């Protein structure tokens, strides 16, 4: 892996956002290509969602979305909504580079911590998060609301 060919940047243009779809849809298969850019733009406008793309040789290999929140129990934090490396490019250090960038973003934005949730069945992801310094702090509960 040539460090010079690797770049991590915010996806700002519609073309840059669209270029992340193939990797993001591996984590979020319910997404539809035709709606993707508009969906990301809506989340950016309503919630301040940010999209980072890691490219190697110009090809998107990993993506992450995040937002900054203020919570009574912990203060300002960077919350990672999505973090995924292309399934054909795993174990090459892309995820670690992206997490390092997210931690840098958190520090630059005055956050005291970085948080994320991961589904209980994603054991491989859990091993990765433990290696990256994350720990399990609580249980996440949810209830679907009837229509």
UniProtKB/TrEMBL annotation:
<keyword id="KW-0012">Acyltransferase</keyword>
<dbReference type="GO" id="GO:0016746">
    <property type="term" value="F:acyltransferase activity"/>
</dbReference>
<keyword id="KW-0808">Transferase</keyword>
<dbReference type="InterPro" id="IPR016181">
    <property type="entry name" value="Acyl_CoA_acyltransferase"/>
</dbReference>
<dbReference type="InterPro" id="IPR050832">
    <property type="entry name" value="Bact_Acetyltransf"/>
</dbReference>
<dbReference type="InterPro" id="IPR000182">
    <property type="entry name" value="GNAT_dom"/>
</dbReference>
<dbReference type="Pfam" id="PF00583">
    <property type="entry name" value="Acetyltransf_1"/>
</dbReference>
<feature type="domain" description="N-acetyltransferase">
    <location>
        <begin position="6"/>
        <end position="147"/>
    </location>
</feature>
<protein>
    <submittedName>
        <fullName>GNAT family N-acetyltransferase</fullName>
        <ecNumber>2.3.1.-</ecNumber>
    </submittedName>
</protein>
